[in-house]
Amino acid sequence: MFFTGLMLALAYVFLFGLLLLSGINYLFVIIFGVAMVFFQYFMSDKLVLMTTKAKVVTPEEYPELHASVERLSLLADIPKPKKIALVDMEAPNAFATGRSPKHATIAVTTGLLTRLTKDELDAVISHELAHVKNRDVMVMTWASLIVVIAGYLMQMLFWMSIFGGFGGNRRGSGGQAVVLLMLVYVGVIAIYFISQLLLRALSRYREFAADRDGAIIYGSPSTLASALRKISGQMASIPERDLRQVEHANAFFIIPALQGNAIASLMSSHPPTEERINKLMDLEQNNWHLMN
After folding, report:
1. How many domains is the chain built from?
2. 161 assigned to some structural domain
3. How far is C-alpha 48 from the geometric centre of its chain's CA atoms?
4. Which of 43, 48, 149, 236 is disulfide-compatible with 33, CB 3.0–4.6 A?
5. Are 78 and 132 in contact (CB under 8 A)?
6. CA atoms of 101 and 36, how far apart (whole Å)
7. What is the C-alpha to C-alpha distance for residues 111 and 80, in angstroms, rounded to an integer?
8. What are 155-194's pLDDT values in tens digits?
């Protein structure tokens, strides 16, 4: 995570340098990017609940679910999430969202409640609470600022080229300015895609961290490993059209609803499930006695 963060910081430096070379008002671009990320930061929980059609449930409706979340929140030393929601979907899954522990939301699917044992369900909830405790939504939202800025700058340079404004405020310098802006355009595209790869890598590392911390909260790495194995295995029996309804929320789920091939895994927000299970079992067999 440290190395990925360092690479992202270098990408920010290069992007800022390209902004200066482009002749575009960089303050406007940065302010626009920050405004977009602020909106995402404060509205992420509402947007995810809306797109997944999750319904907030009360303690009277699901007393056992609320009791489990409250008990595990105490073990995690964080406030009980503000909202607990249910997604009416056969695929067993769960996610956490919200800008801080005080404004967190935990959501589970109906399939998760029916297909997992009580212990496995608690282990999954512990994983999601680890995301809340580690402030992963905040970290990933602000880390994505570079993608927002680079994407906006890409579009701006594209339309400038279409309408003959590629020279920016350096038109008087002739062809050299055009070549310079073309190089800036290529550089921004490169930073955009490299930053996407770095963000996905950072997300995968934070999933590993949430697995480890979730195992510590619940007290059994093997139970979380069992839950991950069961969720991943049963996902194949769910009709693809149902999974595609929540594809846009893949990054939030404990296991993506749709998983790609080996090449697509570079752009995945989650590590391979088998690798996560192996790390949890290694924690159980080799290091668990040192952590208790």
Report:
1. 1
2. yes
3. 12
4. 149
5. yes
6. 22
7. 23
8. 888 777 676 555 444 444 556 767 777 888 899 999 999 9
pTM: 0.83
| DSSP annotation of 86 | E
d(CA 208, CA 275): 9
Print the domain residue range for 167.
2-287
**Which residues have CB under 8 Å from 195's CB, separation 6+?**
8, 11, 146, 147, 150
d(CA 292, CA 283): 12
pLDDT at 163: 66
Expressed in percent and rounded to 5, the helix, strand and coil fractions of the chain are 70, 5, 20
Check if the beta carbon of residue 66 is closer than 8 Å to that of residue 218.
no
For the annotated catalytic residues, the residue numbers are 128
Strands 83-87 and 105-109: parallel
End-to-end CA distance of the chain: 25
- Specify if 292 maps to a domain: no
**In this predicted model, what pLDDT tens digit does every residue of 216-255 receive, in sequence order?**
999 999 999 999 999 988 766 665 555 555 555 556 678 7
> 212: which 2 tokens?
């480890």
Is 276 domain-assigned?
yes
CA-based radius of gyration for the chain? 22
Select from 124, 77, 86 the least CA-distant residue to 105.
Answer: 86
Q: Which amino acid is at 36?
A: M
The answer to whether residue 49 sits within a structural domain is yes
